[in-house]
Amino acid sequence: MSRKFTDKIKGIVMNNLVKNSGLAVIALATLNLSGCKHHPAGANAATGLSDGTGAQAYALAEGKGYQGQLKKDSEGRIINPLVAPANQTYYFDFDSTQLRSLDLGAIRVQANYLATHSTAKVRLEGNTDNRGSREYNIGLGWRRDQAVARILEQEGVAPKQIDMVSYGKERPAVMGNNENAWRLNRRVNLIYEAY
């Protein structure tokens, strides 16, 4: 909407203020809210974030736009956005340390951020479902941490930027003894401790 046109409409609305004050107030508020969109210099068209914010600089830009890169869980919540820095959760199959291919891109985005921000630091928290002994699950959680750390390090992240802890089955994300609960508990949480 051009500024000249917007100013003309505002003038008409103000002239009619006496006649229809309630309607004029609503119309004026709508015009103010629908003004021209402002994009700061250097803003990313896909995310709208300006250069140097971290999120824009590390978003994957394979022509899809940021919205096309979002993954959602079964309830429609956005998971593992392909921007950094962002705390994330990576899920594993039963008794496995193999990362899922859909998480590799998200891990690489975090690795890119960490590799270029030497003071940034993450904590990897390995978790398992409640099946198996405490000792076995602590070890499995640790091996899952190592699987994520290995990719981060292959992408140039310094080992001193990564802390690892295994909680095994001690900190479930979901309580329950069914496949859905077990699936959500087999995970590694990537948590930023410093940016």
UniProtKB/TrEMBL annotation:
Pfam families: OmpA. Coiled coil: none annotated. Keywords: Cell cycle, Cell division, Cell outer membrane, Lipoprotein, Membrane, Palmitate, Signal. Its main location: membrane. PANTHER family: LIPOPROTEIN YIAD-RELATED, STATOR ELEMENT OF FLAGELLAR MOTOR COMPLEX. Part of the Tol-Pal system, which plays a role in outer membrane invagination during cell division and is important for maintaining outer membrane integrity. This is Peptidoglycan-associated protein. It comes from Coxiella burnetii (strain RSA 493 / Nine Mile phase I). The gene is pal.
